[in-house]
């Protein structure tokens, strides 16, 4: 917003006042959704591995998780 023109700020303010931005998701809500999903995976994955009877031998190779490989 700091670098936007006067006209752009006016258009943005008008859109906000008319409620056009109400359907846009707030970044904090999106981050919360990601965190909840990750926590769910951390709870469910061990149960799945135990059910498949591979919990003890399952190992994650951290080098596979790095970007650019």
Structure, explained:
The protein has 69 residues and is an all-alpha fold. Helices cover 54% and strands 0% of the residues. It contains two helices and no strands. It has helices spanning 6-17, 27-51. The protein is elongated. It starts with 5 loop residues before the first helix and ends in an 18-residue tail after the last helix. 0% of the residues are buried. The mean pLDDT is 82.
Q: Residue ranges: pLDDT <50 for 5 or more in a row? A: none
Q: Count of DSSP helices?
A: 2
- What integer value in Å does the Rg equal? 22 Å
Query: What is the CA-CA span between the terminal residues?
Result: 37 Å
Number of strands: 0
Estimate the strand proportion: under 5%
Whole-number average pLDDT?
82
Q: How much helix, percentage-wise, in residues? A: 40-55%
* String of helices and strands: HH
User: How does the overall form come out from the CA principal axes?
Assistant: elongated
By secondary-structure content and strand pairing, the structural class works out as mainly alpha
Biggest sheet architecture: none
């Amino acid at each position: 917003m700091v670098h936007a023109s006067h006209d752009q700020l006016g258009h943005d303010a008008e859109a906000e006042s008319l409620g056009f931005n109400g359907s846009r998701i707030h970044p904090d809500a999106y981050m919360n959704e990601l965190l909840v999903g990750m926590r769910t995976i951390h709870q469910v994955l061990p149960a799945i591995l135990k059910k498949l009877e591979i919990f003890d031998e399952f190992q994650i190779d951290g080098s596979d998780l790095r970007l650019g490989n």
